[in-house]
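Consider the tokenized backbone below.
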């Protein structure tokens, strides 16, 4: 029986999928192909790996601390039986090699040495059965002591992916020896890779035992291993959240799994093999990849939301908030959100990250948060604002509450439009029902809670000289926020 721990790497900000993907709500938590988010799809695929000789343990999810409640809520939405999950929370991004090292250390906690099935949270797969079969064969191959990576037979001369060169004949599990890893090539080199038939795209999906990863990291990047070990030794646990020490983790070198270990493995003491994956895989790295991953109509158009296209071809239009119409255009990406609109030629979709970089440089909030912002207690939507006022629509989940807090620079008016609100204002605590309202003076300690069984919705009108989200002092918070 093979003991297997599925590991889902949930890092990354998906800047090339702006304005839908943002730092506060990155692409892995978006539903870009189907009803479930990419993260939810990855979790469902992981839970389908069990077989007669494969026993699954709890999911290990590695992510930035800021996304923990978003991931937990999306996992709860699946409402499927089976494994639970442990959340390994990185205080800052350090790329995939440290992330996998945290997962390996957690997997080894109970004295066993399970096989890790490692998958990014931001990919989509068209053929579930083929995908599961390839991963099960990879697990059996990894049980022989090998590192196994899944390679995608190239469909075109793609310059945005790394490549894997295979050699020899496939063994009983359909695995080939990996001869070489190749960086993202130029167009001519990419075409030569495709023509040779010896190369596959690097999927970022790999399978290996937890101890083997740590041994290989010790051999090739001991600085990463030892730095992560120091942070792990001083971790704190608040089930299901596990936090490596922040100060120690700051000293961890940032590097990817490929650069740190995988590219050094061919012709080394660490056997590395590749199993081809022909499962309509897509890593959705940019908007053109989203276009290719969805089914187009007779004019080659892919649409989402309220759209009206006339004399338009080979175009993706994604509308989230209002009607979007196009006339007489082709080969475009058009993405609409409540606070931003993107129009880009499909062939230039990789360059969207330059827009995000410019927004960051200008210190504009559109690079980080949507107008509608998710919080562990629910969400708020900033629907209007002026020089000295801001209007928000706020929804609080049943039995949830905001922190006990105070604002130095603003007062707030609350109007209940659905449900029942429990309001703490200074020394008083009272209930408000639909169509009732209250006033929170500037500088007053207050809390909003939902004691009911249906979502609470209020309209909040803020007024004051400064209305930034950082004007908040928390005195108590059930979610552990500062």
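A designed sequence for it:
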């Amino acid at each position: 029986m093979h003991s297997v721990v599925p590991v889902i790497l949930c890092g990354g900000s998906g800047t090339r999928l702006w304005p839908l993907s943002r730092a506060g709500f990155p692409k892995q938590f978006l539903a870009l192909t189907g009803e479930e988010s990419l993260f939810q799809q990855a979790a469902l695929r992981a839970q389908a790996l069990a077989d007669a000789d494969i026993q699954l343990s709890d999911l290990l999810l590695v992510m930035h601390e800021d996304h923990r409640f978003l991931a937990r809520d999306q996992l709860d939405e699946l409402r499927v039986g089976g494994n639970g999950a442990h959340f390994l929370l990185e205080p800052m991004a350090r790329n995939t090699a440290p992330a996998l090292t945290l997962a390996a250390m957690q997997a080894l906690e109970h004295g066993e040495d399970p096989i890790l099935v490692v998958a990014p949270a931001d990919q989509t797969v068209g053929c579930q059965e083929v995908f599961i079969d390839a991963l099960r064969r990879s697990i059996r191959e990894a049980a022989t002591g090998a590192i196994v990576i899944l390679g995608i037979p190239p469909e075109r001369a793609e310059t945005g992916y790394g490549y894997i060169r295979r050699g020899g004949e496939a063994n009983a599990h359909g695995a080939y020896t990996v001869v070489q890893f190749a960086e993202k090539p130029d167009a001519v080199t990419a075409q030569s890779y495709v023509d040779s038939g010896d190369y596959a795209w690097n999927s970022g999906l790999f399978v290996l035992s937890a101890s083997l990863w740590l041994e290989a990291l010790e051999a090739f990047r001991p600085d990463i291993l030892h730095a992560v070990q120091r942070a792990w030794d001083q971790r704190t646990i608040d089930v299901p959240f596990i936090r490596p020490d922040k100060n120690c983790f700051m000293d961890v070198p940032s590097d990817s799994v490929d650069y740190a270990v995988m590219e050094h493995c061919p012709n080394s003491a660490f056997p590395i093999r590749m199993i081809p994956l022909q499962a309509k895989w897509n890593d959705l790295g940019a908007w053109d990849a989203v276009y290719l991953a969805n089914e187009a109509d007779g004019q080659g158009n892919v649409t989402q939301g309220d759209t009206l296209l006339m004399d338009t071809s080979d175009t993706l239009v994604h509308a989230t908030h209002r009607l979007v119409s196009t006339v007489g255009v082709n080969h475009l990406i058009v993405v609409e959100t409540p606070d931003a609109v993107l129009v880009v030629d499909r062939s230039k979709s990789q360059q969207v990250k330059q827009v995000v970089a410019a927004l960051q440089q200008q210190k504009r909030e559109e690079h980080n948060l949507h107008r509608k912002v998710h919080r562990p207690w629910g969400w708020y939507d900033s629907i209007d604002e002026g020089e000295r006022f801001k209007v928000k629509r706020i929804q609080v989940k049943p039995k949830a509450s905001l922190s006990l807090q105070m604002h130095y620079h603003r007062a707030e008016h609350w109007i209940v439009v659905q449900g029942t609100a429990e309001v703490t204002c200074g020394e008083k605590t009272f209930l408000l029902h639909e169509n009732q309202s209250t006033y929170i003076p500037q500088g007053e300690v207050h809390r909003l809670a939902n004691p009911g069984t249906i979502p609470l919705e209020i309209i909040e009108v803020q007024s004051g000289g400064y209305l930034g989200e950082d004007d908040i002092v928390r005195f108590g918070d059930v979610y552990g926020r500062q």
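Residues 128-142 form the longest helix (15 residues).
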